[in-house]
Amino acid sequence: MPWIYLLLAGFSEILWSTTMKLSHGFTKVGWASLTVIGLIASMFFLLQAVKYLPFSLAYPIWTGIGAVGSVVIGVILFHDQFPPITWFFIILLVVAIIGIKVTAGE
């Protein structure tokens, strides 16, 4: 269950970062409200995960899910573009997240 909490925390991280962009500086109340809900959900699920997982394991995975997910959303929704070398480093980030999970023994 702690891994599910951590995934939910990561997805909530993607939610709040995306809705923060859509809120246009918190001028659109609906998107701003979803941002706050996403922030609260992200913190709640992260807190649940670290009850059972080491913080030094949970935190980098949580931030990595949020970072990679935000990149993907940025490309899909906001048409962000990156040079190939940036994609190389994004792939390295995914490999690092998986590596942390696999080698941590949890």
UniProtKB/TrEMBL annotation:
Q: Name the principal localization, coarsely classed.
A: membrane
Record keywords: Ligase included? no
Superkingdom, according to UniProt? Bacteria
The membrane-topology field of this record reads: Multi-pass membrane protein
Cite the InterPro entries for this sequence: EmrE-like, Small_drug/metabolite_transptr, Small_multidrug_res
Q: Where are the transmembrane segments?
A: 29-47, 59-79, 85-104
Q: Which UniProt keywords apply?
A: Cell membrane, Membrane, Transmembrane, Transmembrane helix, Transport
Q: Which residues form a coiled coil?
A: none
Query: What subcellular locations does the record give?
Result: Cell membrane
A Gene Ontology cellular-component term: plasma membrane
Q: Extract the GO molecular function terms from the UniProt entry.
A: transmembrane transporter activity
Output the PANTHER family linked to this UniProt entry. Answer: GUANIDINIUM EXPORTER, SMR FAMILY PROTON-DEPENDENT DRUG EFFLUX TRANSPORTER SUGE
Task: Write out the similarity annotation.
Answer: Belongs to the drug/metabolite transporter (DMT) superfamily. Small multidrug resistance (SMR) (TC 2.A.7.1) family.
Q: What is this protein called?
A: Quaternary Ammonium compound-resistance protein SugE
The species this protein belongs to is Leuconostoc inhae
